[in-house]
């Protein structure tokens, strides 16, 4: 291992994006067996997030993929279903991070017919109180993780606040408006836009001090073209939405979302919370509308201009439009770019991206790691792929004389954790739980 790779191995990542289940839910899941809502704790767990998409796109029947995460088949039978397609995807980032996880956690070179059972056994046995800290700190060398928990409606009251900092999800509050769900969850009657503003205010007052950021992934459902719609214009539309959401035209629904989304950005700014936004590539398979996705970076410019005091963290480098994101990070003081998830979407593109970003935009604007997974076991594998890519990018920058050998250590610290320390207030968020 060369000096650069060694430094990167030893430097901890701040993990800026995960969807990790609460640890206790995982522990309970093992005890509940097939009554739990989680994938079975065996090798199927390693294929349940992202890699299942590559397998299906390569030709695996979706029904077979489902059986891989269920309880009926033995690990060996599951492997027999996966193996012919794993061979087709073993060189992709999604294939690679599963293999790296198997190397890191279970000390095996690869998945095979003769270790499907033993890997599954080790995986299940490891699910004990305290295992998140071991997997994240000891195996992934992650300082702490930032989690957008998908089980809580707006904010997860985590049991591990120092290890799993939590995002406030602004989706049900604004762009994926869920009046019914949230008025029930927060026991508040909502009869007007003013009431809804109060509900949003209440969420920020209650969760804001303990949150690490806000998160919104509505780019899966709509464009980032959030027009500035006044409360006066939005109020009658919101009132009609309360009577029957289906009576609003798509343009009227959009106007309500637009108003509320800007309102949430203002709240995030008030509470000094970075605004994390999904941009670019879609998880899953067979559904991505690339025409609309392509407009994400252009649409984001209006948001950046409308909220000069907000700090935006654009996720997934807007892949495959990452050039636009370099331009945004270079041009707008309030824009950061986040490589979460991206190392496994296209590792080689990420190597190019780091090199181009570092030589084009201020180096403090780049965040280089987030696993973006539900099963914690996949974080060490993802971090290994990211470390390999980062080592290649930095090595090439030095070899090509863009970065001096004496500048390497500072650069690596910035990219892996220093920039996140500057952007996210870990101290404030964690001390508020005490
Ligand atoms: Zn995510």
How would you describe this structure to a colleague?
The protein is of the alpha/beta class. It has helices at 3-10, 23-32, 51-57, 62-69, 75-89, 93-106, 116-126, 131-139, 171-175, 179-185, 193-207, 231-243, 250-270, 290-293, 296-306, 322-331, 342-345, 347-358, 378-399, 408-423, 426-431; strands at 13-18, 142-147, 164-169, 211-216, 275-278, 312-315, 335-338, 366-367. The protein folds into two domains: 42-126; 133-431, Alpha-Beta Barrel (TIM Barrel). Helix content is 53%, strand content 9%. Strands 1-2-3-4-5-6-7-8 form an eight-stranded parallel β-sheet. α4 (62-69) crosses α5, α11 (193-207) runs parallel beside α13 and α12 (231-243) packs across α13 (250-270). The longest helix is centred in the last third of the chain and has 22 residues, at 378-399. The radius of gyration is 22 Å and the shape is globular. Bound molecules: zinc ion (ZN). The site of zinc ion has 3 residues, from loops.
The helix/strand class is alpha/beta
Radius of gyration: 22 Å
Please report the total strand number as a whole number. 8
Total discrete domains: 2
End-to-end distance, in Å? 42 Å
- Which CATH architecture of the largest domain is right? Alpha-Beta Barrel
Task: Tell me the strand percentage band.
Answer: 5-15%
CATH class of the largest domain: Alpha Beta
> Overall pLDDT, averaged?
97
